[in-house]
Amino acid sequence: MTVPARSRPAPSRLARTGLARTGLARTGPGRRVRQRLIPPRYRPAAVALVTACGITVAVLGALFYHGGSPDALDKAVFSAVWPHRRGLAPLAPAAGPVPVGVATAVLCYCCLALRRYTGAIMLALAVPAASGSTELLKHVIHRIYLGFLSFPSGHTTATFALITCVVMLLVEPPARTTPRSMRVVLAVLSVGFGGLVALGLVAARWHYFTDTIGGAAMGIGVTLVVALALDLAAARRDRSNVAAAAPRKRPRAPRSGPAAPAEHG
Predict the structure, then answer these.
(1) How do residues 79-100 score in pLDDT, each as one tens digit?
(2) Residue 114, number of CB atoms within 10 A of its CB
(3) What's the pLDDT tens digit per position in 21-50?
(4) pLDDT at residue number 236
(5) What stretches of the chain show up as alpha helix (H) in DSSP?
(6) At what angle do helices 180-203 and 72-81 cross, to 10 degrees?
(7) Nearest one of 195, 190, 201, 198 to 89, comparing CA atoms
(8) Residue 204: burial class (beta carbons within 10 Å; 0-12, 13-18, 19+)
(9) What percent of the chain has pLDDT over 90?
(10) CB proximity list for 75: less than 8 A, separation 6 or greater
(11) Cα dist. 253→222, 249, 256 in Å?
């Protein structure tokens, strides 16, 4: 009589949800890997965007090196936003260090509460790294606006670094309980808010418009570099964990030949 093989019970919905919330994915029996910040299918686009951001900052930095006057684009944008300064200028303080710092801390807490530890690390590293790189670059390029170093815009850098983190967290969350359309709307609204803040900085006469372009490129580019570096580190750690968890083959003992017949004297 043949005994049927015992089938492995399927994981419950609660177990699957708990696994998703921790950002873990199964790759085999007993093996789990951390979900990436940038899914593999989007990595070529992320690398291309980092390259475009670097080229943008380099070209604008070369054009406005030790400069102090606006170009044609700056004049055109300022002329367009100046009549609406009463509505746009109040948005400029929203990109200050305190609001951005509070928003970063709140998002870090949310990631920790959802056990998205890599996302929390990205937030904690990307915004300060982008802002610090911008402050160093300001002294190198030395573009002056109303007596202050202006390129790239530090306010725009911090804002778009935070927005880039939000967009990446919305791209492919571990627990897909939020509809995709809602995530797309939230991402578009976040980017639109960043654009309004940039125009508010121009209307408040804190920056030229090209300063905000350079700041946005710095924020996006540095944040993507941080995310790619964290994904690379996570991939190496997962490979080492999988290799350590793999069963090791024991060396086989050499087979002994047939015993020789005993000799009788």
Answers:
(1) 999 999 999 999 999 889 999 9
(2) 18
(3) 444 444 444 445 557 788 888 899 999 999
(4) 83
(5) 13-21, 43-63, 72-81, 85-88, 97-113, 117-141, 154-171, 180-203, 209-245
(6) 100
(7) 201
(8) middle
(9) 57
(10) none
(11) 56, 12, 9
- Give the whole-angstrom CA distance, residue 17 versus residue 127: 30
Q: What is the DSSP string of 219-249?
A: HHHHHHHHHHHHHHHHHHHHHHHHHHHSPPP
Average model confidence (pLDDT) across the chain: 82
Which pTM was predicted? 0.77
Element (H, E) at 34: strand 31-34
Number of domains observed in the structure of the chain = 1
The predicted pLDDT at position 247 comes to: 60
Tokens 């948005």: give the residue. Answer: 91
168 falls within a domain: yes
Distance CA 246, CA 108 (A): 34
| Range of the structural domain that residue 219 is part of | 34-235
What phi and psi, each to the nearest 5 degrees, are found at residue 31? Answer: -110, 135
3-state secondary structure of 8: coil
Is residue 107 within 8 A of residue 101, CB to CB? The reply is no
Name residues of the chain where pLDDT drops below 50. 1, 8-9, 11-31, 265
Is 6 inside a domain boundary? Answer: no
Q: Which long-range contacts (CB under 8 A, 24 or more apart) does 78-86 make?
A: 78/202, 78/208, 78/209, 81/199, 81/202, 81/203, 82/203, 84/203, 85/203, 85/204
Q: What is the Cα–Cα distance from 109 to 93, expressed in whole angstroms?
A: 23
Domain presence at residue 162: yes
Asked if residue 18 is part of any domain, the answer here is: no
